[in-house]
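[step 3/7] fold_predict: job queued, chain A
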Amino acid sequence: MMMSSKMYWFLSVVLVGLVLMNLPPLISSSSGSGSRKLITQTDSCSHPEIEVSQSPESSSKGIPRYRVLIANLCSDCWIEQLHVHCGEFASANIVDPQLFKRVADGDCLVNAGRRLDSGKVIQFYYSNTFPYPLSIGNYVCGH
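[step 4/7] structure written:
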């Protein structure tokens, strides 16, 4: 199977990030104390445990405004390096890049990649003529 250049780039970035964080490049999928793993839909920390929601708010200078909430609903795990599928996300108002930043077409990083503990929520607002579809991408999870 041929790997696309975007997938190769993404995997390279993940590997470099793991090296910079002094993590082994092969991530254990065990659930022992302090373990880390790159999540897939079949792992114990599943997509339903991270929720992305957005709702319309009052308009800003005639441009619709949206409130976004990204919550870690996992009762006993943390997440980091959370990426969201975000299309060509852009906003008429400034969004704090420490909270949400488009790092590539269709790829936005949440909380600057920092850890989001159980029960924590990231909130930000953006303005655009239409809402962007946002969905969970990849992330690292630990217990």
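[step 5/7] annotate
The longest strand covers residues 50-60.
Helices lie at 5-20.
exit 0
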